[in-house]
Design brief:
The chain has a single domain, classed as Rossmann fold (3-Layer(aba) Sandwich), CATH 3.40.50.300. The chain is an alpha/beta fold. It is globular, with a radius of gyration of 20 Å. An 8-stranded mixed beta sheet has the order 3-4-5-2-6-7-1-8, sandwiched between helices. A hairpin with a 3-residue loop joins β3 and β4. α2 runs antiparallel to α3, α3 packs across α5 and α5 crosses α6. 46% of the residues lie in helices and 14% in strands. The structure holds adenosine-5'-triphosphate (ATP) and magnesium ion (MG).
């Protein structure tokens, strides 16, 4: 946290007075993330994405179909929050290194598509896993490894693919919750469903645990064109070629176990190693060609 304060002071010291129009727009954007997305990121969210962006609850769960726009929504919310809330830390967490990199690529895609003038006014430094904003805010993306995550104090924690965490009880309650103890921070857990022996299942469906959570549920019917990005013909095709349990899980966004899977889903989740990067296949091929 000390380092965050030092860096924040450094960027704040360099902050130039903003152009009046930019300042007005930023002020409006503070309470209107959909306006922020359109004005600064040239991105028009669908209505179910706006619902997540404007949700002021402290605990938010987002259960959506595959390809509904989960990663995109988290990326936009993280940028909006950092840009309009000075001196805050937004932490983005994903099950693996690869998935946190995908998230950061999405964030960077938005930042590099901004008008140069806006980007220069708002963004200090863009690195692979960390982004500095000139208002002293910081965005960090990490895989869900307890070793990497410990030690942060966050104002907003955004989790992508929350159903796929190994040791998720430890990650949620021993690592992520304490980060927000002093900040009254917001926790957003977004995912397509997976196993029932998971925190993500409980915050969506457990009669007691789910009570404290604001819930967003978006099955495929709610996110086909023109209301979302999915082509209706794609859904027809997937229905033909996908086992029914998997379709209900991935597109109806229901918690359904595979009838004929060899390994239980929760065992598969336990095997995800957050620290492993994808193997570079070209390196293997080059090795065998030698
Ligand atoms: N509001 C939007 N307008 C246009 N395209 C969008 C919008 N939101 C998302 N998309 C597009 O939809 C596609 C899926 O988005 P995204 O990767 O965020 O979905 P996802 O739910 O995270 O997918 P997955 O289940 O594979 O992780 C991407 O090509 C993205 O650019
Ligand atoms: Mg995604």
């Amino acid at each position: 946290m000390e380092r965050l304060d030092r860096e924040a002071d450094k960027w704040l010291a360099q902050l130039q007075p903003l152009d009046t129009q930019l300042e007005d727009d930023l002020e409006r954007a503070k309470d209107d993330p959909a306006f922020f997305a359109e004005r600064f990121l040239t991105f028009r969210p669908y209505s179910y994405q706006i619902a997540v962006l404007i949700d002021k609850s402290k605990r938010i769960t987002v259960r959506m179909s595959r390809q509904a726009g989960k990663t995109t929504t988290i990326a936009v919310r993280a940028i909006w929050f950092a840009a309009t809330h000075p001196r805050t830390l937004s932490l983005i967490v994903a099950p693996s290194l690869r998935q946190s990199m995908i998230m950061m690529d999405r964030v960077q895609g938005f930042l590099y598509a901004m008008k140069t003038q806006d980007r220069k006014a708002l963004i200090g430094k863009i690195q692979r896993t960390v982004i500095w904003f000139k208002n002293g805010s910081q965005m960090v993306a990490l895989p869900c490894s307890p070793n990497l995550l410990r030690g942060y104090t966050a104002h907003q924690v955004l989790i992508d693919e929350a159903a796929f965490f190994r040791d998720d009880e430890v990650i949620f309650y021993n690592v992520l919750y304490p980060m927000m103890a002093t900040t009254n921070g917001t926790l957003i857990a977004s995912s397509t469903p997976w196993g029932k022996d998971s925190v993500f299942y409980k915050i969506n469906s457990h009669p007691e645990i789910s009570k404290g959570w604001s819930k967003h549920y978006v099955p495929w019917q709610a996110c086909v064109k023109p209301n979302g990005p999915i082509e209706p013909s794609f859904i027809e095709e997937v229905k033909q070629v996908t086992p029914i349990e998997r379709f209900r899980r991935e597109y109806d966004a229901e918690f359904v176990e595979d009838e004929d899977s060899y390994f239980p889903q929760d065992l598969i989740t336990k095997c995800i190693d957050p620290d492993l990067a994808m193997i570079d296949e070209s390196a293997i091929l080059a090795f065998h060609r030698r």
